[in-house]
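Justification of resources, computational component.

The compute hours requested in this renewal are based largely on the per-chain cost of generating structure records like the one below. Each record pairs the submitted sequence with a full structure-token output. That output is archived, and it is also reused by downstream analysis tasks.
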Amino acid sequence: MISKKTKYALKALGYLAEHSTGAPILISELAKEEDIPRKFLEAILVSLRKGGILKSKIGKGGGYMLALPAANITIGRIVNILEGGFALVECLNDNVNVECKECGDPACCGIRLVMSDVKGAIDSVLESTTLADMVKRSEIARQQKSKIMDFSI
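The structure output for this chain reads:
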């Protein structure tokens, strides 16, 4: 499961991508519009800026904006910056060198082999899906939902 930090980051980045005019957006606007606690959002945005996803402008007319086009920012990159990767079992976490205590031989561990396949599938989706794709999918879903007529009485 992704953390609340990553979920909030995706919401904020989605908002920035949807409202991208080239001008920075204030943290207060992001926090209000996406219902994210401001202090928590500030820390998230700093991490994303350090990770090269965002750039900021200080002073009057300041705020945050995407450092790259939304089509060039993968969801996987965002998850890696905030979560340090994604693994279903500890022994598959690239950032931690841990061996399973329950498993005698990792090369033959059925659980590890299956979870490795699952991790590969998840990584593939995360690395091939961009922020622009996420925003587009959301907009398509909103459009489809608005076309549904409810005839219940």
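DSSP finds six helices and two strands in the chain. The beta strands are 54-57, 63-66.
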